[in-house]
UniProtKB/TrEMBL annotation:
Keyword Transmembrane: no
Lineage: Eukaryota, Metazoa, Ecdysozoa, Nematoda, Chromadorea
A GO CC term attached to the entry: neuron projection
UniProt cross-references to PANTHER family, sorted A to Z: CTX-RELATED TYPE I TRANSMEMBRANE PROTEIN (PTHR12231), DPR-INTERACTING PROTEIN ETA, ISOFORM B-RELATED (PTHR12231:SF253)
Pfam families: I-set
Designated name of the protein: Ig-like domain-containing protein
Length: 155
């Protein structure tokens, strides 16, 4: 993070993290000669407030940064899942995610599911799980069939 402070005489730069002074002695942080703060490793799913204060004999000024770390999403229940469905009844499929919730897309044989009279995708941005509601099961083949996440057409 750059402080970007300048003045005459050149200002002293002080960084704080959530109100606590950061120095080069603090593990994971380094303040360069020009006042730039380097963070070695961001904390997982953290929201941190860094403040740069520049002071000299003429006065002081400060700049605040809010840093929110993000992480890749992780599907919590991987692999294929068998779903038993009754013809004519609705079915509900879940995609459970941990981490920062992304946009979630549902596919059948590499074709994207869009909203229609047959399907509804239920998803609130920033929350898990995403749900795919199949309004009425229509069997492609007679008899008992298993359904996996990627083989919806065969249910």
């Amino acid at each position: 993070l750059k402080c970007g402070a300048r003045g005459f005489p050149p200002p002293d730069i002080i960084w704080t993290l959530n109100g606590i002074l950061i120095s080069n002695a603090k593990k994971g942080y380094f303040v360069a000669e020009d006042g730039t703060l380097f963070v070695e490793k961001a904390e997982h799913q953290a929201r941190l407030i860094f403040k740069c204060t520049a002071k000299n004999s003429a006065g002081s000024d400060e700049k605040e940064y809010t840093v929110k770390t993000i992480s890749p999403p992780v599907v919590t229940k991987k692999g294929f899942k068998t779903i038993n469905a009754t013809e004519g009844d609705p079915s509900l499929l879940l995609c459970e995610i941990e981490g920062d919730i992304p946009e979630i897309y549902w596919y059948k044989y590499a074709a994207y599911f869009s909203e229609s009279s047959e399907y509804t995708v239920l998803f609130t941005r920033g929350r898990s799980p995403s749900e795919l509601l199949i309004h009425e099961e229509r069997f492609k083949y007679s008899g008992h069939q298993t359904n996996t996440l990627y083989q919806l057409a065969e249910v």
